[in-house]
Design brief:
46% strand; alpha+beta; Nuclear Transport Factor 2, Chain: A; 22% helix; six-stranded mixed beta sheet; 3 helices; SnoaL-like domain-containing protein; SnoaL-like; 127 residues
Amino acid sequence: MSGPAPTPEEIGPAFDSAMNRGDVDGLMALFHPDAVMRMAEGAVIDAGPEALREALGDLIAARVTLQNQLRRILISGDIALLLLDWESRVPGPDGQDIIDQGVATQVAERVAEQDWRLRIANPLGVR
């Protein structure tokens, strides 16, 4: 899939797919124009779509691969809270993958029928 997620449950797999194939446009299609994302190093990207595109492009350039597994979802009308277990891998300087894991908290909004977008992406959860 490339484009918005038709259901909130499909956001994680769509994000993984776009990230793992290096598709920044596919990633951006999953975000609301007013989205905010807290990056793994703690920086908050809240300066608009171009800043988010740049940050996601940096992840792609670092050859990060990602796997999300939906743990729980709560939906209220057009808002969804997603809790996702994730694992990332990035090639280390010695050729061995550097592996990180966590639980992400994500807030998605339905902006149209079959069009769910991330409003808040917080891969660090409570870290």
